[in-house]
Design brief:
Elements lengths: L2 H8 L5 E2 L5 H11 L3 E6 L2 E7 H11 L25 H11 L3 E6 L2 E7 H24 L6 H8 L1
Parallel strand pairs: 1-2
Antiparallel strand pairs: 2-3, 4-5
């Protein structure tokens, strides 16, 4: 399975904030949309990724006032990224090695979306479910002994 296939299942909706926005604005956006990350964009380009994890770490580190603190001070400036051609096994390795639950998906300089650990798990579950249904269908339609031999002898 490729990252592009997971993105097709997930969709390409992208939520962004600017680095000048406050953490309060980011929290409000993420809470209202029930999402765990937003891409930080400036002048049409991704400059970082903000998740609740980065926000909490920034608040713990410097005791920021989240109503006034800027996204720029909390965001992950250089997140690990995935590509559409990447195999899911490589994506999983990146997620585990870098402890990054959300990865922006980039096609060159073009941001296609963000893929999460949850998206990967859901896609893998759907793939296994599809394979299971196909195997059960195959077994149900298994030719009885002698069925296939008669048609081969006639042909």
């Amino acid at each position: 399975m490729l990252v592009s296939e997971i993105m097709a299942l997930k969709g390409h909706v992208l939520y962004t904030v600017g680095p000048q926005h406050t953490l309060q604005e980011a929290v409000t956006t993420m809470t209202e949309l029930d999402i765990g990350s937003v891409v930080v964009v400036e002048d049409g380009k991704m400059v970082g990724l903000l998740t609740f994890r980065e926000m909490l770490a920034a608040l713990a580190r410097v005791g920021m006032n989240w109503r006034e603190a800027r996204v720029a001070g909390a965001m992950m400036a250089k997140p690990v990224v995935a590509t559409p051609e990447m195999e899911v096994e490589e994506l999983q390795r990146l997620i585990v090695e870098h402890h990054q639950r959300y990865l922006p998906v980039m096609d060159g300089d073009t941001l296609l979306g963000v893929i999460s650990f949850h998206d990967v798990a859901r896609a893998m579950l759907e793939e296994k479910s599809f394979e299971n249904r196909m195997l059960k269908s195959y077994i149900r339609n298994w030719p009885e002994e002698g069925e296939g031999q008669d048609s081969q002898a006639a042909g």
